[in-house]
Amino acid sequence: MASFATPQETSIAPLISFESPAEARAWRTVNDDVMGGRSLGAGVVEEGRLVFTGSINTKGGGFSSVRREMEPGALEGARAFVLSIKSDGRAYQLIARTNARFGGRYVSYQAAIPISPEGEWSSVRVALSDFVPSVFGRIVPASEISPLEVNELGFIIADSVDGDFALSVRSISLERSPPDGG
Considering 57, 63, 162, 173, which has the largest number of Cβ atoms within 10 A of its Cβ? Predict the structure, then answer.
C-alpha cells in the first residue's frame, strides 16, 4: 500500500540562497551555441537573487540555461523544490543531472516550473516526481531521478518562442519528508 506524506509531515529547508559571493561563482551558462544555435543568455547573481536573462533564437537551437554543481546527497529526503521566483510569464523548466546515461549521453531530468504572474514574486512548487528524463530535449526511457545522486541543478528556457526572456530567483528550498522513524 502506498504511503503519502501530508503537509504536516513535511518540512521546507533552504537549499540555495543568493546572498553569498561564492554563489555568484557557482553558476555557469550553457546556451544552444554548443550545437550551432544563436540564442544568448546568462545568469548573474545580484542583490540577493539569480537573474537569468537573454534572447531565444529558434533557428538552429532555441535554448538557454544556467546551471550549478551540487554535492551528491544534498537533496536527501527531498520530495519537491520550492522556488521564490519572478518571471516574465514564459515557460521555464528546472533541470537536474545525475550520472545516469542513455545511449552514451548524460540524461537531463526536466520539470516544468509553474507559470506565475508576470513581474510578481511568487512561491512555486516543483515535485521531484514531475521530472522527466531527456537527452537533447527528447524524452528517453531512463530511470527516474534519484535525489541522492543529483550533481547538477539549473534552469532552462526552451519554449520554442523567439525573443527576450527574464527570470529572477530569490531562493531554492527543498520540501522534505521526515526521516524514517521521525
Answer: 63
Phi-psi region of 25 (alpha: psi -120 to 50; beta: other; left: phi over 0): alpha
Residue 74, Cα to own-chain centre: how many angstroms?
15
**Residue burial 157-176, b: 16+ Cβ < 10 Å; e: rest:** bbbeeeeebbbbbbbbbbbb
DSSP string, 68-86: EE--TTTTTTEEEEEEEEE
Query: Tens digits of per-residue pLDDT, 111-142?
Result: 999 998 999 999 999 999 999 999 988 899 99
Of the CA atoms within 13 Å of residue 116, those in its CB half-sphere come to 20
Compute the distance between CA of residue 78 and CA of residue 45 in angstroms, rounded to an integer.
25
What the block records as the C-alpha cell of 44 is 548573474
Phi, psi of 29 (to 5 degrees): -105, 140
